[in-house]
Specification:
By secondary structure, this protein is α+β, with helices and mostly antiparallel strands. 36% of the residues lie in helices and 23% in strands.
Length: 145
């Protein structure tokens, strides 16, 4: 099972305050634990919402671009980990071990799989998704050279 562990933003992250050297060292050690356990697939911090945009589609489906910053820091995401674990409980245990300070919040969300879409995930869709994933892999390999 794959889970996204969203680190919720706060006033400090939205102000653009960078983590201290100690915070970065502690977070790196945690990331190394995730990698050594073979569960970490990806993880990154995100820039503050003042540097972001939202694209909303409204009632008509017409896209509208809204520049950040966005209100309610606690509803925003400051970073994430993508992990692959054997159960929801294991995902919760990794989230509990994250080195966030007082007031920190992690939201866990399971990543949907083909099976979740049932009959709507047709052989044609499966084939197209396979081509997309192959192209993504090839692009990453080219970029890493």
């Amino acid at each position: 099972m794959r889970y996204l562990m969203f680190v919720k933003a706060d006033e400090r992250t939205e102000a653009g305050e960078m983590p201290s050297e100690q915070d970065l060292t502690t977070m790196t050690a945690y990331n190394e634990e995730l990698v050594k356990a073979g569960v970490m697939l990806d993880g990154n911090g995100l820039a503050r919402s003042a540097e972001g945009v939202r694209v909303t589609f409204g009632d008509t489906g017409t896209p509208t671009v809204i520049d950040g910053p966005f209100a309610e820091a606690k509803e925003l995401v400051a970073g994430y980990w993508l992990i692959e674990v054997s159960s929801r409980e294991e995902a919760i245990e990794w989230a509990r071990r994250a080195p966030l300070g007082p007031g920190g919040t992690i939201e866990l969300r399971r990543v949907l799989t083909e099976e979740d879409f049932g009959d709507n995930y047709t052989p044609e869709v499966r084939e197209a998704e396979g081509r997309i994933r192959d192209a993504e892999t090839q692009r990453r390999e080219e970029l890493s050279r």
